TrEMBL record:
<keyword id="KW-0677">Repeat</keyword>
<dbReference type="Pfam" id="PF24681">
    <property type="entry name" value="Kelch_KLHDC2_KLHL20_DRC7"/>
</dbReference>
<dbReference type="InterPro" id="IPR006652">
    <property type="entry name" value="Kelch_1"/>
</dbReference>
<dbReference type="GO" id="GO:0032874">
    <property type="term" value="P:positive regulation of stress-activated MAPK cascade"/>
</dbReference>
<comment type="similarity">
    <text>Belongs to the KLHDC10 family.</text>
</comment>
<dbReference type="InterPro" id="IPR011043">
    <property type="entry name" value="Gal_Oxase/kelch_b-propeller"/>
</dbReference>
<protein>
    <recommendedName>
        <fullName>Kelch domain-containing protein 10</fullName>
    </recommendedName>
</protein>
<dbReference type="InterPro" id="IPR052125">
    <property type="entry name" value="KLHDC10"/>
</dbReference>
<keyword id="KW-0880">Kelch repeat</keyword>
<dbReference type="InterPro" id="IPR015915">
    <property type="entry name" value="Kelch-typ_b-propeller"/>
</dbReference>
């Protein structure tokens, strides 16, 4: 999201496989238009990770092509806008370069970026890598198999940073989803995990375990949007609920509003004035029906 525009980058559609384009939605006129890109986006634009740290400047990492999990990437790209065009640059990186993976969380804290978890399609991890630019981009792995309270490996989770703490929400594998009553939290100062117990909504309790959901942060609150949990190994339970957690008190609140169309594998973004936009996603439990609709709600009307 930038100014009045919502940007959609890459993705997957079964009719055309991996999508290697950029679109933007004018949130004032509700009109879509394609964006000019100086060179082709990579073929691994499904479940890649994005970290935005400047206006019109973001980092892209990893992702998979189709069939999912057969061709993963650990390449790092800069994507930035200049003179009306998006420019994609393959960056050279050194250090503890993460393995090829997809479904990771990628977050920024000023000039420092953190990559959290992900999957090769067969193995899942919950490791943390730090990315910094000095003379060039440099990766540092902050965890290993002996790290205190290292959580279960996962993908399609979300992560947010507050001061030195990285909060990890949900995620899972192809056959399970992680709960949200207790959150794994990584302390970038001590380089250890802690577990934080959250407080349930007084009426609805805790949100269901989930993965492939949307999440945005506004001030001290994180909003969890839709996603899916698993009733069995063949059918996903598609969710349309919306939740807020206060990062100061760790209190969950279920919002009264629900998504008109329950989705998972969607994207979400928030405007400065508190409008949350949700784009696309799967809307059936067998992942056969996808949508390109835009749903939105105001955090001030919930």
């Amino acid at each position: 999201m930038h100014e009045e525009y919502l940007y959609v980058i890459g993705g997957y559609h079964p009719d055309s496989s991996i999508l290697k384009d950029i679109w933007r939605l004018n949130t004032k006129s509700n009109a879509w238009e394609t964006c000019h890109v100086t060179n082709l986006l990579p073929s691994t634009m499904a479940s890649f990770s994005l970290s935005q740290y400047l206006s019109y400047h973001m980092l892209l990492f990893g992702g998979t092509s189709f069939p999912f999990g057969h061709n993963q990437s650990n390449e790092l790209y800069s994507l930035f806008k200049r003179d009306g065009y998006f420019n994609l640059v393959l960056e050279k990186a050194s250090g503890d370069i993460p393995p090829p993976c997809y479904g990771s969380a990628f977050i920024s804290a000023g000039d420092t970026h953190y990559l959290v978890g992900g999957t090769t399609g067969r193995e899942y991890n919950s490791h943390i890598w730090k990315l910094e630019k000095k003379n060039s981009w440099h990766w540092t792995k902050l965890t290993n198999e002996t790290t205190h309270l290292l959580p279960k490996g996962r993908y399609k989770h979300e992560a947010f940073i507050k001061e030195t703490l990285i909060f990890i929400f949900g995620g899972g594998s192809t056959v399970d989803a992680e709960p949200l009553d207790k959150l794994p939290v990584f302390d970038t100062a001590s380089k250890n995990f802690i577990t934080i117990s959250t407080s349930p909504d007084s009426k609805y309790g805790f949100p269901l375990p989930r993965k492939c959901f949307g999440a945005v942060q506004h001030e001290e609150s994180v909003y969890i949007i839709g996603g899916c949990s698993h009733d069995d190994q063949k059918m996903a339970n598609v969710l349309n609920d919306l939740w807020r957690i206060d990062l100061a008190t760790f209190q969950w609140t279920k919002l009264e509003v629900v998504l008109p169309v329950g989705v998972f594998f969607h994207s979400a973004s928030i405007t400065p004035d508190g409008w949350i936009y949700i784009f696309g996603g799967n809307c059936d439990g067998q992942s056969k029906v996808r949508t390109n609709i835009v749903q939105r709600f105001s955090i001030y009307s919930t």
